Amino acid sequence: MRSLTVLFGLTADPVHKGHEQAIINGVEFLLEQGLTINQFILVPVYQPNLIGNKKSPVAGFKQRVEMCELVAKRLSKKLGCLIVVSQIEKQLAKTTGEKNYSYTTIKYFADEQNNVNNWIPAFAGMTEAEGMNKIEEEARARDVTKFEGEAGARDVTEFEGEAGARVVTEFEGETGVERVTESVGVPKTGKKNKSLLFMVSADHFSGRWPKFRQWYKWNELLDYTGLLINHRPGQKINQAFIEKLKNINPKILVVEKRKSISVSSTQIRAGKFDLTALSTDVLNYIQENNIYQLN
Q1: Which residues pair with 226 in a beta bridge?
Q2: Which member of 22, 73, 220, 251 has the greatest number of CB atoms within 10 A?
Q3: Pairing between strand 4-10 and 144-147?
Q4: Which runs of consecutive H residues, i.e. helices, occur in 160-289?
Q5: Which is nearest to 202 in space by CA: 225, 234, 226?
Q6: How far apart are CA 6 and CA 9, in angstroms?
Q7: 154-168, pLDDT tens digit by residue?
Q8: Tell me, what's the pLDDT at 270?
Q9: From CA 244, how far away is CA 265, in angstroms rounded?
Q10: pLDDT tens digits for 220-240?
Q11: Could you say which of 3.40.50.620, 3.90.226.10, 1.10.579.10, 3.40.1000.70 is the CATH number of the domain covering 4-112+192-289?
């Protein structure tokens, strides 16, 4: 079975025990279903699309990333699952000049998983002969139909089948293949990606008119990812809407009947909360950096 990559987008202002419990619930649920998790990626938002009475984050992006990294390191050990932090939303915001939308981030990860450039392994440190042998082995595995030129020159390899693209690589001296220099043609996109799940709170799927319908390109988003919906006690999911979503993408999973920790990020930022709402490492980080006015 294909390994799953789970994305969890969050403001992380700050990362509290409610977030941590959602991660734990998601990982445990997937493992209980007999699914394999390749990695669980925390994606702090860089430039949020503020709606309603939402306000810009108090903590800086670097601080929010570092708080996420504390949690990722600790929960990776606890759960035996690779949990990492991605700063891709900063890169996307600076590249596009737009605010962060879940659709853009998800599409990036989906396309990245199918990017033919990622299929070329790193050959640094190999001799030319070792690099060529490795290329030939990878070629046979990927239906490479033609090699042109010789080691120490610019070689073109053609990929058929899944890639449907052509990759140009360079051989430099005795280091073997150092990099992919260009990709020609049209690589396979991440549409209908079967290995990507986006974790989101169930409150976006409740009521007669679920908030998820207001998301930017919400229906197209489901072309690139399945959903891992984190249900909390007291939330009532619109099941008819869930069934509609499954008609677009059947991989809509609901994590329910699990432990839930109710924490308000707004109250934490205002200093009106029980300190037990934060894990010790995150609390220490906040105090050391004087991020919020904690009591």
Answers
A1: 197
A2: 22
A3: unpaired
A4: 218-221, 239-248, 265-269, 280-289
A5: 234
A6: 10
A7: 333 333 333 333 333
A8: 84
A9: 32
A10: 999 999 999 999 877 889 999
A11: 3.40.50.620
Contact 127, 176 (CB under 8 A): yes
At 206, list the tokens.
Answer: 């409740």
3-state secondary structure of 259: coil
Are the beta carbons of 20 and 280 closer than 8 angstroms?
A: no
Q: Indicate the pTM of the whole model.
A: 0.74
100 within 8 A of 89, measured Cβ to Cβ:
yes
**Beta-bridge mates of residue 42:** 8, 85
Q: How far apart are CA 192 and CA 10, in angstroms?
A: 24
Cβ distance 170 to 178 under 8 Å?
yes
CA-wise closest residue to 17 among 289, 288, 264, 272: 264
Confidence of residue 190 (pLDDT cuts 50, 70, 90): low
Query: How far out from the chain centre does Cα 165 lie?
Result: 25
Domain boundaries, the chain: 4-112+192-289, 124-175
Beta bridge partners of 43: 9
Q: How many CB atoms lie within 10 A of CB 162?
A: 13
CA dist., res. 127 & res. 257, Å (int): 56
Please give the helix or strand (H or E) that residue 63 lies within, else none.
helix 61-79
Strand-by-strand arrangement of the 252-255 sheet: 83-85, 37-44, 4-10, 196-201, 226-230, 252-255
pLDDT at residue 168, as a whole number: 36
The whole-angstrom separation of Cα 46 and Cα 68 is: 13
What are 106's two structure tokens?
């998800």
Q: Which residue has the tokens 């001296």?
A: 173
